[in-house]
Amino acid sequence: MRRDGSRYNAYNRGMRQRILLLSAYQADSHAWWTRWLEQRFADIDWRRLTLPGRHFKWRIRGNPLSWIDHIAEASQGVDRVLATSMVDLATLRGLHPALAGIPSDYYFHENQFAYPVGPGQRPSVEPQIVQLYGALAADRLLFNSEWNRGSFLDGVAALLRRMPDAVPAGIVERLAPKTAVVPVPIVPPAPGRVSRDARLILWNHRWEYDKAPDVFADAVIRLAEAGHAFRLALLGPRPHPPPPALSRIVDALGDRVIANGRVPRGEYDALLHRAGVVVSTAIHEFQGLGMLEATAAGAIPLVPDALVYPEQYPAEYRYPAGDADALARRLAGWLGDSARPGAPDVSGWYDTALQPLWRQTLSGPVSAAASSGGGSHPCTGDS
What we know:
CATH class of the largest domain: Alpha Beta
Number of domains: 2
Domain tRNA-queuosine alpha-mannosyltransferase N-terminal: 18-186
Oligomer: single chain
CATH architecture of the largest domain: 3-Layer(aba) Sandwich
Largest sheet: 6 strands, parallel
Low-confidence stretches: 1-13, 370-375
Enzyme class: transferase
GO molecular function, one term: tRNA-queuosine(34) beta-mannosyltransferase activity
Distance between the termini: 43 Å
Order of helices and strands: HEHEHHEHEHEHHEEHEHEHEHEEHHH
CATH topology of the largest domain: Rossmann fold
Family: Belongs to the glycosyltransferase group 1 family. Glycosyltransferase 4 subfamily.
Radius of gyration: 22 Å
Structural class: alpha/beta
Strand order of the largest sheet: 2-1-3-4-5-6
Keywords: Glycosyltransferase, Transferase
Helix content: 25-40%
Number of strands: 12
Strand content: 15-25%
């Protein structure tokens, strides 16, 4: 195998392509993406190594150890490696030199340069270094959004400015030409038989610090105190015991809550079709699959004017990030108001729209991003 992608020519002549997919932190969205790739591109011979999405610090540094007895067999005869950015790709290539000759794509579901530090956590440069070394080792860097790509490159530049000495020149300039934006697709929920409830507000995120649920709690409690009628569907995984924000909402507004907790997929889709408004208060979002799914089902998105959202939703769907009062005012104006906007078009993120881009990405030479000056999903322009 040569790094110039010469096996692509052999594949074009009829050989079945073999890809080794490495996912070192198989969280829900990563697992969905993995299944989608295997199902939509069943003509590819997929070899897969994954690790459960837990023990983050150990996973991001320890995955080469976890796979040390498996990677040689898994990579035998493959044409390409597709590794998520939780994989310590540089170390894997050092421990298994045969990998260094296989074209490798490094897929960023997230980047550690723009991930907020949680309560009780200490900032660490280690996860950032893992991703930087992985990016330098990979032939192509794929991102799920322009925000993800830009914040990664900006973060690398900031890290290099912090280095006390012996700083190499032009690192960002080496990385940028081999980047491309290739989003994770969504499958729009099948049309439901439920009626739209304009006063149903949907939350479908993890109840953790990076989704800022306290801002959501403040907004809906103020909305109720102002006398507005509405209902709540509080979905998404939550830790045990429940976080204070969720407890505050249930204690103050329990009679308005029609759903509370993770629900079966059919019930989840029905709630997406029923909801009038879907809200995000996130301080970390690199793509926001849940918001895209709800919007595809017809719910009106209300999102912070930050992160990935400006490249997905026009200004009328955005409010000042972190401002619970502004969120409450916007919700008050939309509840039951026939003049509120309709759901925007997010069909550019449907799997039917993105499947050709993914086919081109998986089957084309690894130099594709560089030759095109850095790829870009057509829907990632600022609105």
